[in-house]
Amino acid sequence: MKSFLIKCMFGAMALGVLLIGNTVKAEDWETTGLTDKAIKVGVMGPFTGNASSYSKTQIGLMAYFKHINDQGGIHGRKFEMFPEDTACAPAKGIAAAKKLVHQDKVFYLHGNSCSAVAMAVKPTVSPTGIPWIIAHAVNPKITMPVNEKKSIYHGVPAGPAYGSTMGEFVMSKPGAKRIAMITHTNDWAKAYCDPAIKVIKATGGEIVLEQALERGQTDATAQVLKLKGAKPDFILGCLYEAETVIFLRDAKKYGLRIPVMGTAGTDLENTLERLGDKDAVKDYYVLHAFVDKVDGPKMKKWNDIILKYNPDETITGFSAVSMASGVAAVKALQNVGPDLTRSKFIAELDKIKGLSTGILACDITWSATDRHGCKKSAVAGFVDGNPTVLSSWGKPW
Amino acid sequence: MDIFLQLTLSGLSQGAIFALIALSLTVVYRATTIVNFGHGDFVMAGAFFVYVLVIYVELPYVFAAISAVLIMLGMGLGVSRGFIDPIKAGPHIGFAMMSISLGYVLRGGARFLWGREVFPMPRVFDIEPFFIGNLVVTGDVLFISAIVAVFLLIFFFIFYRTTTGVIIQAVYQSERGATLIGVNVRAFHQSMWGVGLAMGALAGILIAPISLLHPDLGATFLIRGFAAMTLGGFGSLGGAVVGGLLLGVAEQLFGFYINSSLQDITAYLIIVAVLVIRPAGLFGRTVTVRV
Amino acid sequence: MEKKNGNTSLITSNQLRWFYYLVPVAALIIPFVANEYLLWIVNAILVYTLVTVGFNIIIGNLGQLAFANTAFFGIGAYTSAILMVYGGVPYTLSILMSAIVGGLAGFLASVTALRGIRLYYLAIITLAFGELMRWVYLHGDDVTKGSDGLRIPDDIFFLGIPLDSEVPKFFVFLLLAVLLVKATSNLMRSRIGRAIVAIRENEATTASLGIHTARYIVLAFVWSGSVVGVAGAMFAVLTERVLPEAFGLTEVIIHFGMVLVGGTGSIVGSVIGAITLTTLPEYFRQFPGMDELFFGIIIVLVLLFLPKGIVSLLWRISPAFKERYYRD
Question: For chain A, which terminal residue's Cβ has fewer other Cβ atoms within 10 angstroms, N or C?
């Protein structure tokens, strides 16, 4: 019985191997997910789980697609969105990607917060050659080096862009030399801090102390006292918002009055609101991806689009981030013309050069060899008590 | 020395929260021999009720906090009646999963209602930090320590100095004996669930202004509550309190003197160390079986 | 062999045995009808079948509240991945090593039980073990690549079959699942299995009968660790990247849920549990943001109304579905 079973299985196995060889025909692949009326787009995001506050970026992106639809769509086609939950968990993300690629058969993928999930999903998506635009995750390895099928794009500053901005800003403070850091120990924090350290070391600075503060901790006394003892000129803080708030609170408490440089995972005004103490954020500087304050006049147009389709949404520093790559994708789709195919879409994405989206502080430039579309970011900080967007120490944007 | 004292102080205020959570777990455990694995989510729920009452119903903070504690007390009675009693006949494995699942329902509910947002919890008192020598004392530390200390005094007074307390001790000793002298053990179990959840809610309300309010608030505290119970001696009320305080201090000292990346796993290391060195914990009775 | 229950039941245990053999044979049709996504889910079910079968030995048969299952799962996955990435070890051999290392982890976990620690105390200690392992993956940067995760090689073979898509993975996983489920079933029906269940029913009595309880407790943990370790090696290939995040507290809760929803102490139940809690979350994708709520509600309902798990519904069809490891 058993040997028969095993024979059966190997027989079927051989059949199965034959079957895979027989893949989809090329033309089909080019126009999968397209009809005369619709472009199917898969939007992966952490709609549940402990990172669900990031899904605000996908909400923003989808609001922008709805806005384009209401203006008549692109060459008669409207976006048909397939939001899929990754819960910021690798296995769930892979299932989501497989569903979008093999069951919903979308034309292209756009979205993804959570670098770990994007990395986990990459082996599934990359070999299919389906265009995939990363609209939020920061790990640079998702898009570079360029994958074999040349199909993956980064539409936000990746770690190195953000990180080097952090490094440059820190070193632009006159006399800054001794730098300390406080970070989470995860890939997200590394994506910011590692490139920042590189820039700092290359421009004559040194890292004098490294402290870990893990997610969910509610006290940073030990870390603050260590940092105070090290007497650095500037502190790099690669922390999520909740822990940033705790760190700044304790820093003030123990009289650690040294400027702190934070990531794009936090937002200056949110941080202030959560701390409820202007004095504690006085020395906090933070990466700011946008051209203006989150609720500034230049951002109003975009925030209004989000609110039009999601009236109850609270706008945060995450909300509009992904819309910029949405603008780029729409531009490329428009440039392709009515005869849309995946190859043409990829070709047009590669032709996007210096696209100023009016959202992000960087211009998006893609090419066949460089997929990090966004190379710089602004910094926000309090100047004379007012939140201000800065380009370097003391210099407004 | 200043640094050591400072670390100890902030460790104690953290530890006060752990102690409260460990104690609330122990109260239920001693009464029903059930450990509530979903307790973290009940802690979160308590804080969320305060938020709802303050923001939507516009109750004053203190009333909201008291109401939330009472709501959780009621929820404890309901959980015991509606979800634990019906599976009484089954193995302990069922209780563990039931408490986890109820926690999931609460967390899922909170996520469904407020999923993408993180809320700053309204602050009660804003006391300026002051100095004792070189030691900084902040409003949070003072507030948390004071409330927990007062609560513990009341709790242990009731437990050891009143008739109610004597009855509770009696039931802890022998349920059958208690039944014989006319104690309604079922009602007793329900009320202990109520007390446990109410105490957990208090911990949630105290910590939320610091940790911010979000559906995953409770998860990190649950494991620390477990560690505190283990350290103090599984099932010992006083041990839970001492264990919580020691854990709070240990986290700070480990983080500063050894390595800050160890701070996060101090709780786990303590659990394993206790197992290796003294499974009964500091004040525990024997919890092991000999075969 | 046939038991005398023909009068009351539609199916005899002998017929049932053939039915059990038919299930995997019938499953061979799946790759010809399912797309890559559905096949991925089926493959995940096969992995989780072993996870649940392994976990059930400790939770159900031995009756111990030990939550080291994600630790075994992660250790299996990392063992296989590390051997393939750094040692160039063939996948087939790495599976074997995962079983061995998983078994060793099981042995380590059994030490707690041998120190006489039981129930919730054991649960908490084994949870701590799992979380400490996750910390090791996260901070073992040079080997585990920390939070980036360890990408397994592209060209892996199982006995010469290239595992480059879901279809070959399906056949290999099915083979492994059938072999290990059958082996576990045989083991649980043997004298060893009966001793393990006897320990659950009454440890002191079992010991007083001259049965070396410690030996059987260790054996149950080691076997459980090995089976789940193999599942880990399969998981590594299924997800193609081994990440610390995959082995957190939520994962062990899902495993626990699978055991209880399917049916504690039942191998058929383990399979049912793995199928139910792998497919339902996929079905609930259409209601985004309500995952945890549904998961919680389903398990609460099962606990209240089907305390012996979904498998108990089958018992109503025929008592032959009951897996008896000892005489009542």
Answer: N
In this prediction, what percent of chain B has a pLDDT beyond 90?
41
- Work out the minimum CA distance from C98 to partner chain A, whole angstroms: 20
Write out the two tokens for B96.
């563990």
Confidence check: pLDDT of B39 > 50: yes
Answer yes or no: do A225 and B3 touch at CB < 8 A. yes
Q: Give the whole-angstrom CA distance, residue A237 versus residue A286.
A: 9
Q: Residue A4 falls within a domain, yes or no?
A: no
Q: Which amino acid is at A207?
A: I
Kindly state whether residue A5 falls inside one of the protein's structural domains: no
Q: What is the ipTM of this complex?
A: 0.87
Residue where the block lists tokens 């349920």:
B175
Which strand ranges, in their side-by-side order, compose the sheet holding A108-111? A78-85, A38-45, A108-111, A132-134, A152-157, A372-374
Overall domain count for chain A: 2
Return the H-helix or E-strand segment holding A284.
Answer: strand A284-288
Rounded to 10°, the helix B266-277/C119-139 angle is 130
Question: Residue A343: which H helix or E strand, with range?
Answer: helix A342-350
| B104 lies within 8 A of chain C by CB | yes
Q: Cβ of C125 and B289 within 8 Å?
A: no
| CATH number for the domain harbouring residue A78 | 3.40.50.2300
Q: DSSP code of C307?
A: T
User: Measured between alpha carbons, how far is residue C77 from residues C55, C81, C106, C235 in Å?
Assistant: 16, 6, 15, 6
The phi and psi torsions of A293 (rounded to 5 degrees) equal -60, 155
Residue with tokens 């509240």: C65
Q: Nearest chain B residue to C255 by CA: give it.
A: B97
Same domain for A252 and A363? no
Closest CA–CA distance from residue C29 to any residue of chain A (Å) = 9
Q: Could you identify the residue written with the tokens 């995940």?
A: C44
Give residue A236's domain range: 161-292+379-396
Classify residue B196 by burial, with Cβ atoms within 10 Å: 0-12, 13-18, 19+: buried
CA angle, residues C145, C146, C147, in degrees to nearest 5: 115
Residue B13 to chain C, least CA–CA distance (Å): 24
Transcribe A6-60 into DSSP letters. Answer: HHHHHHHHHHHHHHHHS---HHHHHHTTB-SSEEEEEEEE--SSTTGGGGHHHHH
* Tens digit of each residue's pLDDT (9 = 90 or more) over C216-230: 999 999 999 999 999
Alpha carbons C97 and C105: distance in angstroms, whole number: 12
pLDDT recorded at residue B234 = 84
**Sheet of strand A378-383, all strands in order from the earlier edge strand to the far edge:** A206-212, A178-183, A234-238, A260-262, A284-288, A378-383, A386-392, A395-396
The shortest CB-CB distance from A219 to any of B10, B123, B261 is to: B10
Helices (H), A49-147: 56-70, 90-98, 115-125
Q: Which residues of A touch B129 (CB under 8 A)?
A: 253
Read off the pLDDT of residues B106-163 as tens digits, 9 standing for 90 and up. 998 988 888 677 777 777 666 777 788 778 887 778 888 899 999 999 999 988 888 8
**Per mean pLDDT, which range of A96-105, A311-320, B170-179 is the poorest?**
B170-179
* Domain residue extents for chain C: 13-247
Contact A302, A323 (CB under 8 A): yes
Mean pLDDT of B44-57: 91
* Other Cβ atoms within 10 Å of A198 Cβ, number: 14
Closest-CA residue in chain A for C169? Answer: A13
CA terminus-to-terminus distance, chain A: 76
- Measured CA to CA, the distance from residue C98 to residue C79 in angstroms comes to 6
Segment (H or E) for B99:
helix B92-114
Contact C58, C66 (CB under 8 A): yes
pLDDT band at A292 (very low <50, low <70, confident <90, very high): confident
Give the range of the structural domain holding residue B111, as residue numbers without chain letter.
Answer: 10-214
